[in-house]
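Subject: for your reference before the review

Hello V.,

The reviewers asked for a structural picture of the protein, and I figured it would be easier to keep everything in one thread rather than splitting it across files. Below is the amino acid sequence we used in the manuscript, unchanged from the supplementary table.
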Amino acid sequence: MAGNGFPVVGIGASAGGVEALQAFFEPMPADPGMAFVVITHIGEGHESALPQILVRSTALPIVAVRDGEQIEANHIYIVTSSAVATASRGCLHLRSGGAGIRERNTVDVFLASLAADYGEAAIGVILSGSGHDGTLGTKAIKEKGGLTLAQKTDHGAPRYPDMPAHAIASGAVDLQIAVEDMAQRLIEYAQTRGTLETRAHRNNRAERMRW
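And here is what came back from the structure prediction:
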């Protein structure tokens, strides 16, 4: 399990996801103390222009993922092809997707691997999209003690509510909030988590010294 000390946020989006991702990252500071990995649905043979689009909405460095990419805090990683992405030992790996339905549930596949690799430091976010991809992935993160969020219906957003709605209906979502409010909640969570980890470390050290 990766133990690099910062949370990693896996974000799943599909139809209507560009607007949702812009709204997600616009309020995010340049040093949130987290890494972000964006998984969207991309057709075979196509390449996403999302890195060029999101650069106007955030000061965070944006990385188009290559196989073996190491995950670092305060970066946004975007899978720009139809490859299936997974996380392992703090790195991102890409492989060609098969034709089967399970292989096309790229958000589920990534979030499940993130849960296995990061445990309680894994965070899953489900934004606008059609279908139910992401539901099983949020369950996997929830089971490992991580945090899960889904975009709630608010003034006509998300444009395509199926993906967040299915995740919410599964009971695996901790927070159902507007996408514009997610940055602040995640920062609060990361700061609180860091405080709790520091406190636990100090307690463990004191306990060892007593022995």
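For the response letter, the relevant points are probably these. The CA atoms of residues 35 and 99 lie 30 Å apart. Strands lie at 8-13, 35-40, 62-64, 69-70, 76-78, 84-88, 91-95, 122-126, 147-151, 175-177.

Happy to draft the paragraph if you're swamped.

O.
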